[in-house]
């Protein structure tokens, strides 16, 4: 198997390999709770055609049956573990320590461009599985044109919870910047984000000179002022 797990030579963080595993007893506990959780009785609101009143009783019953009888966590766990997984500790701008879980495809190409991919809410590193598969099919570690880093944001998946404070996106962005710097990408890196990850990406591009560019698939904008200030020339026009 091609080795995409070789750390960049400039990495300074203490990075350890990680393997996802949920104990069988926890999976069985979840199934027991689900089995014992009744679906509510049929009433007008949950049997009405369409979703006017929310999800239907049939949809909920089918979802319960799928989770109980069809969903195979081990299959998804194996896919997650098919990518190089790592954990490390970084500092955010206020000095809080965050244990960060991330996937990565590291390149041996000396010209590889580092890029971080940030998931949204609700979301996870699973959002990027298909992209990672595409890159592995197309490139070997020797010619992969990117160092691809896919972190779990603070409080998501296997990354640690943020401290018990009003933890803003700016602090999460700072922690992600620390990750990229600690991986040895101080000469420059790119970021991409969707949903919540788009805000993280925008803050990193704005605040950190090492972030050389960003791409987002969601762009928030403030409400337009119905009476914006106008220059004298605009008033004359």
TrEMBL record:
| UniProt keyword annotations, A-Z | Hydrolase
Query: Where's the Epoxide hydrolase N-terminal domain?
Result: 15-128
Which biological process terms from the Gene Ontology are attached to this UniProt entry? epoxide metabolic process
Pfam families, alphabetized: EHN
The Gene Ontology terms for molecular function here are: epoxide hydrolase activity
InterPro entries (alphabetical):
AB_hydrolase_fold (IPR029058), Epoxide_hydro_N (IPR010497)
Family the entry assigns = Belongs to the peptidase S33 family.
User: Which protein is depicted?
Assistant: Epoxide hydrolase N-terminal domain-containing protein
Q: Could you tell me which species this protein originates from?
A: Photinus pyralis
Print the organism lineage.
Eukaryota, Metazoa, Ecdysozoa, Arthropoda, Hexapoda
């Amino acid at each position: 198997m091609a080795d995409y797990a070789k750390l960049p030579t400039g990495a300074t963080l203490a990075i350890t390999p990680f393997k996802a595993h949920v104990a069988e007893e926890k999976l069985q506990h979840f199934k027991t709770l689900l089995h014992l959780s009744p679906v509510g009785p049929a009433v007008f609101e949950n049997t009405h055609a369409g979703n006017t009143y929310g999800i239907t009783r049939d949809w909920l019953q089918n979802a319960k049956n799928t989770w109980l009888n069809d969903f195979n966590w081990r299959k998804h766990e194996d896919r997650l573990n098919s990518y190089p997984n790592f954990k490390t500790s970084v500092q955010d701008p206020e000095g809080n320590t965050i244990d960060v879980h991330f996937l990565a495809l590291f390149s041996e190409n000396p010209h590889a461009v580092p890029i971080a991919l940030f998931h949204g809410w609700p979301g996870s590193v699973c959002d990027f599985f298909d992209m990672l598969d595409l890159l592995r099919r197309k490139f070997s570690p020797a010619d992969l044109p990117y160092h691809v880093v896919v972190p779990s944001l603070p409080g998501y998946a296997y990354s640690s919870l943020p401290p018990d404070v009003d933890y803003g996106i700016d602090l999460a962005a700072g922690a992600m910047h620390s990750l990229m710097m600690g991986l040895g990408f101080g000469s420059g890196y790119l970021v991409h984000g969707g949903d919540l990850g788009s805000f993280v990406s925008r803050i990193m591009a704005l605040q950190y000179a090492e972030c050389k560019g960003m791409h987002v698939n969601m762009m928030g904008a403030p409400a337009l002022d119905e009476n914006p200030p106008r220059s004298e020339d605009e008033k004359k026009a």
